[in-house]
Specification:
The chain is an alpha+beta fold. The protein contains 23 helices and 22 strands. It has a 7-stranded mixed beta sheet, sandwiched between helices.
């Protein structure tokens, strides 16, 4: 995140960094002290620079204790009651250990967890050697928080038996259903001893149950492998996050690999071969080839290939990656642009092959803004979808969400666009500077958002460029997952009455600003290896009218139901959120309306109230909520199947949802059509997106609103002389 200028708190933070770097290096720490150094640095930063520092006391200790154990063993299938009693000796001591940089509690839980994980493999393997009896009348509860820790191995075995039976009954139903729907296909997939039907064609429940158990075991083996692949540092990161997230939900410690993933997420790019990998037991398997990347251009690496060995261009012997942790294998495969890496592959047909790929910058297309053009009632409208407010931390001007949206607007204007829909649904936010710059594309100048550090005067972040890239009709789509930067933009456009906001009753409700700090900067002559990074809350932001979106979100002008309407997924549903408050309004002038803002909203509300598709969406959302809230499931197959069939019957009334179609046709812009001619994957993605837009009732209404807006002057089709950069 960009550090905001002119703020005393950030000056203090910079000074802290300087002094800390000196003071921390007066003592030498050997390799075994890295964990203690991390606690020292992190608590120092949170006490000095967090927006709302917490008292690290017995109450804090108790909260960390509970949250940490819930993260280690959420299903209560590892720890015994005796383990918890051992741990409880530290329940009110964690605060003292934090202050003393003592990690005794972590060491105890870590060693005990590894012991219990090893024991669990023996347990589930033993249980899965015996068939499950699906004729027995018993139920399974998923209210894990209500469970007590088991007292002995007999109770532990019974807990595992129930959980495994719950997993297996679902697999069993899948096997039976597949056999009913396509017997010939199933018979061709399984060897004779694993067939699930008899010679007469009847379903063999014994064989089906065995097959289902095999699938359960395979899933558990993969999960177990993933767990034992986690190193001590990974579990210590869990402990650190149990501590820091007591400050607020968005303060988070990133272990080195997690920091790399965060950078890729926020920038949408990385340097490597352009393939997504996954681990299956001991094998590193290619899961996806990223369109436009080096592997895609070379066209030799294929989905399903197993990577056996990796060799760098300056090495003679390759490194065997079979059985290696996925994160460690990826470190050998990724690398700087222009370097070469040789992969030894086991192809899907079993042959062994070496291929050499020149690494390059890989862009994740799904991260970036995309646009489409559509005609309605002889008017041309544009749609821009923005997944997040991305930015390159190293070079803001290289590529960011604001500059990309500006470019898409200019391209849409060249096609005669008369109104714009900006789709921020599911956009979780991103860069603060990017959203300030983006707001400036739609207003002449003025404040965009107010930010405040505890104990300091507010700072008003403004658009100072008087040029406007788009001065025409604007609709912004949001939902419950539109957060942070999305809420800043929607709130600013709403306060200016510059756009009509259509979407959920409220957006996510994240009204805080975080800073991401590389912890390696805190230690001079570091011999402990990569220390990772800390994301911590430094400010709260406020609307220009003085209100806050914290907890309350942005209220849509036109409220429409969606699939998330009845889910608890906002900021207010997390533990330890910062409270709502408000400050004085900034000085701003609402947009000089060229349309009747209130009448436009009223007409849209009337349409939405009478829309049958939205009524069906609302009914479906309520039904899905009921299904998700169900906590007890039968483990008797007859009852289990009856419940499934009842669900399927209820689901039939919602089949019309997927049948909904508008008469709208969406198209890519000319520049993208040229790209699609060379890239079949991009073409497929865009066709799928355009198809979904044509079935999207929210997009349809957004276009209706644009059509309603009465313009009193012509939209400028050329960028003003002072172009926003």
């Amino acid at each position: 995140m960009k550090i905001l200028r002119g703020n005393y708190r950030y000056l203090l933070l910079a000074l802290l960094l300087a002094f800390a770097s000196c003071s921390f290096t007066t003592t030498k720490f050997d390799d075994n002290d890295k964990d203690k150094v991390l606690i020292q640095i992190i608590t120092y930063l949170l006490e000095e620079a967090h927006f709302d520092p917490q008292d690290i006391n017995d109450g804090f200790s108790k909260a960390v204790f509970e949250d940490y154990l819930n993260q280690l063993d959420p299903f209560k299938r590892y720890f015994y009651e005796s383990d918890i009693k051992d741990f409880e000796a530290y329940e009110l001591e964690i605060d003292d250990q934090i202050k003393a940089y003592d990690i005794s509690f972590f060491n105890l839980t870590y060693e005990r967890l590894l012991q219990r994980i090893d024991e669990s493999k023996e347990l589930y393997e033993e249980i899965l050697t015996e068939p499950f009896d699906f004729s027995v009348d018993e139920d399974y509860s998923t209210e894990y928080e209500e469970l007590e820790y088991v007292k002995n191995k007999r109770q532990m075995k019974e807990r595992w038996r129930q959980q495994l039976k719950f997993s297996t009954i679902a697999n069993y139903d899948d096997v039976i259903t597949q056999q009913n729907s396509n017997e010939d296909f199933l018979n061709s997939q399984f060897s004779p001893e694993n067939e699930t039907s008899t010679a007469s064609g009847e379903i063999d429940p014994i064989a089906a149950e065995e097959k289902a158990r095999q699938q359960t075991k395979q899933s558990l083996d993969e999960l177990h492998q993933y767990i034992i692949d986690r190193q001590r540092k990974d579990w210590f990161a869990v402990y650190l996050n149990a501590i820091v997230m007591e400050f607020d939900p968005h303060t988070f410690y990133y272990a080195p690999e997690d920091k790399d993933r965060f950078d890729v997420l926020i920038s949408g790019k990385f340097e490597g071969i352009g393939a997504r990998l996954q681990k299956k037991i001991d094998a590193i398997v290619v899961n996806e080839i990223i369109s436009g990347g080096p592997a895609w251009r070379q066209n030799e690496l294929e989905v399903g290939d197993q990577i056996i060995k990796v060799k760098q261009e300056d090495e003679v012997e390759p490194i065997n990656v079979v059985g290696m942790r996925l994160d460690d294998a990826i470190k050998f495969i990724k690398g700087p642009k222009g370097t070469k890496v040789t992969l030894t592959l086991k192809k899907v047909d079993g042959t062994i092959e070496d291929i050499t790929i020149t690494r390059d910058v890989v862009e994740l297309e799904e991260t970036f803004a995309k646009s489409s053009i559509v005609e309605k009632d002889d008017k041309v409208f544009g749609v821009i979808n923005l997944p997040q407010f991305y930015v390159n931390f190293d070079d803001y001007n290289e590529r960011n969400a604001a500059s990309d949206v500006k470019l898409e607007i200019e391209r849409l204007k060249a096609q005669g666009m008369e109104g714009l829909v900006l789709d921020l649904r599911n956009n979780g936010g991103g860069s603060l500077p990017a959203v300030v710059d983006m707001a400036g594309l739609f207003i002449k100048d003025g404040p965009v958002v107010q930010v405040k550090t505890a104990g300091e005067p507010k700072e008003v972040l403004k658009d100072k460029d008087r040029s406007i890239i788009w001065d025409g009709p604007l609709v912004i789509l949001v939902n419950e997952l539109s957060a942070s930067a999305s809420e800043i933009l929607a709130a600013a456009m709403q306060d200016y009455k510059r756009a009509v906001i259509i979407g959920s009753k409220q957006t996510y409700g994240k009204g805080t600003v975080q800073n991401v700090l590389d912890l390696n900067r805190m230690v001079r002559n570091n011999s402990n290896g990569d220390m990772g990074a800390l994301k911590f809350t430094t400010q709260k932001y406020y609307r220009i009218n003085g209100g806050s979106v914290q907890l309350e979100g942005v209220k849509s002008d036109v409220v429409v139901p969606d699939r998330y309407s009845y889910f608890n997924i906002g900021e207010k549903d997390y533990e330890n959120p910062l409270p709502w408050d408000e400050i004085d309004a900034a000085t701003f002038t609402p947009w000089e309306n060229y349309y009747d803002y209130e009448t436009t909203i009223s007409r849209s509300k009337e349409r939405m109230a009478n829309n049958e598709q939205l009524r069906l969406i609302d009914a479906n959302a309520q039904w899905v909520k009921q299904i998700r809230d169900r906590a007890t499931y039968p483990l008797n197959y007859t009852k289990y199947k009856q419940q499934l069939e009842l669900n399927e019957q209820e689901a039939k009334r919602f089949e019309k949802l997927s049948d909904y179609k508008t008469d709208l046709t969406f198209q890519s812009l000319p520049y993208e059509q040229e790209l699609m001619a060379q890239d079949s994957i991009l073409k497929q993605k865009r066709e799928r997106w355009h198809q979904s837009l044509s079935q999207d009732v929210y997009i349809e209404e957004a276009l209706n609103v644009l059509n309603d807006i009465k313009m009193t002057y012509a939209i400028k089709n050329k960028v003003a002389a002072s172009v926003k950069n």
